């Protein structure tokens, strides 16, 4: 196993969301990300259907917001954590990245063509994760469903935050103060106005995200009126108290 493959594979010890398959996958269930981003492409239609069927959303608008949060919390997670730890940018440009929808919400598996790295640092990360990928996804979902761009970008911000937060939640954990510093470096100049849509803090020695937008998950059949642990509909002190007590209701 090459050093790049070994480094990428090792991230799975921190949480399942960082697991990534290396090599072009086979099987019709895998969707290449550049095709997901195509206007009116069937791949994004399929992703929306998966999330809608799993959640029983009240509208296409709500399904788009839910999908954005779950997708952003999984598809780029490995690249974001790798940058946070090593400063290297994994090549997850859309044509090199595949996702496999979960039977329920979000993404079950992620695959990349090879564990190669792109030259550059934070600006390259912005380009690969946001400009070429997640912000384009938000724009297409906005065009299709009329879901608000601010709410869609809120889902992107929450998903990206979970790439940092989740590594402090398992038995093998990373220093939350270090990851908080890395998150702040990432979010401060991130495009899409993401820095205004929520913030990361430390509660119970773990990183947690506090959203300034709502994904409408509570309106779905499976949500049944229950808001996410990070949701802006709950006052900030109550969210922090729940996190400190170790009982948030739902996270991305």
Strand order of the largest sheet: 1-5-4-2
Show unreliable segments.
none
CA radius of gyration: 17 Å
Q: What is the beta-strand fraction?
A: 5-15%
Task: Outline the fold blueprint.
Layout: H1 3-10, E1 21-22, E2 31-32, H2 33-36, H3 42-55, H4 60-72, H5 77-86, E3 89-90, E4 97-101, E5 107-112, E6 117-118, H6 122-145, H7 149-165, H8 176-187, E7 198-203, E8 206-211, H9 236-244
Parallel strand pairs: 1-5
Antiparallel strand pairs: 2-4, 3-6, 4-5, 7-8
Helix pairs in contact: 3-4, 4-6, 4-7, 5-7, 6-7, 7-8
Question: Any overview of this molecule?
Answer:
It is a single chain. The chain has a four-stranded mixed β-sheet with strand order 1-5-4-2. Strands 3-6 form a two-stranded antiparallel sheet. It is of the alpha+beta class. Helix 4 (60-72) runs parallel beside helix 7. The protein has helices spanning 3-10, 33-36, 42-55, 60-72, 77-86, 122-145, 149-165, 176-187, 236-244, and strands spanning 21-22, 31-32, 89-90, 97-101, 107-112, 117-118, 198-203, 206-211. It is 44% helix and 12% strand. The model has no long low-confidence stretch (mean pLDDT 91).
């Amino acid at each position: 196993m090459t050093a790049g493959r070994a480094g990428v594979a090792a991230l799975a010890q921190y949480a399942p969301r960082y697991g990534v398959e290396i090599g072009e996958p086979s099987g019709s269930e895998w969707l290449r990300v550049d095709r997901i981003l195509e206007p009116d492409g069937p791949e994004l239609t399929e992703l929306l259907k998966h999330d809608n069927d799993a959640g029983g959303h009240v509208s296409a608008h709500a399904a788009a917001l839910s999908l954005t949060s779950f997708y952003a919390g999984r598809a780029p997670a490995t690249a974001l954590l790798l940058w946070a730890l090593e400063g290297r940018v994994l090549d997850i440009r859309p044509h090199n990245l595949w996702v496999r929808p979960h039977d329920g919400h979000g993404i079950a598996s992620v695959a990349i063509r090879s564990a190669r790295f792109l030259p550059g640092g934070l600006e390259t990360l912005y380009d690969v994760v946001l400009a070429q990928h997640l912000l384009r996804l938000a724009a297409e979902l906005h065009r299709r469903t009329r879901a608000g761009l601010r709410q869609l970008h809120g889902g992107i911000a929450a998903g990206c935050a979970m790439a940092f937060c989740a590594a402090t939640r398992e038995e093998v954990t990373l220093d939350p103060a270090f990851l908080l510093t890395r998150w702040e470096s990432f979010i401060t100049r991130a495009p899409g106005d993401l820095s205004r849509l929520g913030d990361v803090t430390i509660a119970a020695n773990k990183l947690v995200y506090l959203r300034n937008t709502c994904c409408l998950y509570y309106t779905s059949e499976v949500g049944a009126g229950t808001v996410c642990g990070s949701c802006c509909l709950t006052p900030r002190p109550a969210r922090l108290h729940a996190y400190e007590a170790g009982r948030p209701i739902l996270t991305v």
